[in-house]
Amino acid sequence: MNIPTNLKYTKTDEWFDPANHKAGLTDYAQSQLSDIVFVEIIVAVGDTLQAGKQMASVESVKAAAESYAPISAKVTAINEGLPDNPELLNSDPYGKGWMVQIEGGDASGLMDAAAYTSIAKNGHINIV
């Protein structure tokens, strides 16, 4: 399980990078979903996200899930290539598999890597 220490995490398995303001689905979540075959980002540049509200839908060969905004903030970019290459969520969830870039929010309520690791190791699953 890959849980980078420089990122922040939600209980619903999203990550947020305070350095570049990108967000996406965690490695733990993609491993639970298995082979991801579909991604739909349902927000657009300029939208204001509310923490905990849906920002994307993800489907795999075994399940479907929603991905939620980790913080309340304005969308400044979306990963336009992700819907055409949903497998990037499996192969590079913290790099090329990012979903949205958001700015102007407060990430202080998110978990650090140690807290998220503890939850993930205890079998926490938020897959729909």
Question: What's the quick description here?
Answer:
This protein has 3 helices and 9 strands. With 128 residues, it is of the alpha+beta class.
Number of strands: 9
Mass-distribution shape: globular
Number of helices: 3
Query: How would you sum up the major sheet?
Result: 6 strands, antiparallel
Q: What is the structural class?
A: alpha+beta
Outline the structure in words.
The chain has 128 residues and is an alpha+beta fold. 16% of the residues lie in helices and 30% in strands. It is built from 3 helices and 9 strands. The protein has helices at 27-33, 88-91, 113-121; strands spanning 8-9, 14-16, 22-25, 36-41, 48-49, 54-60, 64-68, 73-78, 100-103. The strands form 2 sheets. It has a 6-stranded antiparallel β-sheet with strand order 1-2-3-9-8-5. A hairpin with a 4-residue loop joins strand 1 and strand 2. The longest helix is centred in the C-terminal third of the chain and has 9 residues, at 113-121. The protein is globular. 37% of the residues are buried.
Question: Which labels suit this protein?
Answer:
128 residues, alpha+beta, 3-stranded antiparallel β-sheet, single chain, 30% strand, globular
